[in-house]
Design a protein that fits this description.
Strand order of the largest sheet: 1-7-6-5-4-2-3
Number of strands: 12
Shape: globular
Order of helices and strands: HHHEHEHEEHEHEEHHHEHEHEEEH
Number of helices: 13
Helix content: 25-40%
Oligomer: single chain
Radius of gyration: 22 Å
Strand content: 15-25%
Structural class: alpha/beta
Distance between the termini: 64 Å
């Protein structure tokens, strides 16, 4: 199948990038462990050094394993091309570097993934790129932030800590009117639940580490781009020597095959947990765009076709640290660790206040981020419910 295939996402995930009869009938694309790749003649060696060479010349540039995975992601996203890189952050940094140059101006959503902000502030600013952060709920109002030197807009929806939903089509329309490229971190929904290119995005980054891999054992990212940007982002990744090993690529393409069924369960569990948490007396607010109570619910319902298992909730103020420890330390099914998107459930306390400049985070209670894994929902509710009970009991004893 070719990019732009009319087949539905679940079918693409099962078949894209696989060519069994090119590999002796083997269903899964095999792993090629390759650095050195030989050419049989001087003429072919010389040809392999020239632009436009479509074969293999060095393992860092491509192998049959990387091509199979990138082909699958390209079709899944409906992109013109995809490049796999060593982490989700590497996808972000290479995509941004392909778009900006010294003296230019970049707009970045204020709820962006923390390492995106740190790269913008600590790296891009050192090389003469000015960054302005914008309210993720600004919508078409972003038009007022463009300058003559503005060349790119970086978005993320929902934000992976506070879960605001941006009006991506409105932002993209304003950006394109100005001649700026639109980038989006689409890790939360993936192409399964948000068609970024259909909504005006030019370059998509996704952390393969999360849902595409799905098993918490691979560090990888992808950059998928339209016809204008597919070449520049691949070239930037090559310039940085950023590639992936055969084993990780194999695990990523294997994870891709089950993405739809896993994310469906993650999403169902997440929404059920979020709905249940709204009824808990310890909780002041639940941050899940799939809930009618979420301020961005209408936008989510308009633009997204589903949700992942990642969301947040805010505890009512007044719970001391020892009570929070009692809640978290006794959980049996929720681990405390960075990342998300695997088969296991996670929970973390977060404080986004220092990662805001265009907006403020004013919630007085403790923000918690939850990733709902693939466990039975009744067990997840029971475990978290017992934790919230411990939170209240420890607070009463302290008081």
């Amino acid at each position: 199948m070719k990019p732009g295939s009319s087949r539905r996402k679940r079918t693409q995930l099962t078949h894209a990038g696989r060519h069994p009869h090119d590999n002796h009938g083997v269903v899964n694309p095999p792993v090629y462990h390759a650095s050195t790749i030989l050419q049989p003649t001087l003429a072919q060696w010389e040809a392999s050094r020239k632009p436009g060479w479509t074969g293999y010349r060095y393992g860092r540039w491509s192998t049959p394993t990387s091509n199979a995975f990138e082909e699958a992601v390209t079709e899944f996203y409906g992109a013109a091309g995809t490049v796999a890189v060593s982490s989700g952050k590497a996808a972000i940094t290479n995509a941004l570097l392909a778009c900006v140059s010294p003296g230019q101006h970049l707009l970045v959503t204020d709820n962006a993934y923390g390492p995106t902000r740190r790269f913008s502030d600590a790296f891009l600013s050192r090389f003469g790129v000015e960054v302005t952060y914008f309210d993720p709920e600004i919508g078409a109002g972003i038009a007022g932030l463009f300058r003559p030197e503005t060349v790119a807009v970086y978005t993320e929806a929902p934000g992976s800590h506070t879960f605001e939903i941006s009006d991506i089509p409105a932002i993209a329309t304003a950006a394109h009117r100005h001649g700026a490229v639109v980038l989006m971190d689409n890790t939360w929904a993936s192409a399964l639940y948000f068609d970024a290119f259909a909504h005006g995005v030019d370059i998509v980054v996704e952390a393969v580490t999360k849902y595409i891999c799905g098993h918490s054992d691979v560090m990888m990212g992808v950059i998928a781009a339209n016809e204008t940007w597919a070449g520049p982002v691949r070239e930037m990744a090559k310039l940085h020597g950023n590639g992936c090993g055969g084993d990780d690529l194999y695990l990523a393409q294997r994870g891709l095959r089950t993405l739809a069924v896993r994310m469906e369960q993650n999403g169902q569990n997440g929404l059920a947990l979020a709905s249940w948490l709204e009824s808990r007396p310890e909780v002041s607010r639940v941050l899940h765009p799939g809930l009618p109570s979420h301020p961005g619910h209408a936008l989510w319902k308009r633009d997204f076709t589903g949700s992942s298992g990642l969301f947040g909730f805010v505890l009512k103020p007044g719970y001391p640290r020892n009570a929070l420890a009692a809640m978290l330390d006794g959980l049996e099914l929720y681990g405390m660790g960075a990342s998300w998107g695997g088969y296991e459930s996670l929970i973390l306390p977060l404080d986004p206040t220092s990662d805001r400049t265009a907006t403020t985070w004013d919630e007085p209670g403790q923000l918690m981020r939850v990733h709902a894994g693939l466990e039975d929902i009744d067990d997840l509710i029971a475990d978290l419910g017992a934790g919230l009970d411990r939170l209240s009991s420890a607070t009463a004893r302290t008081g």
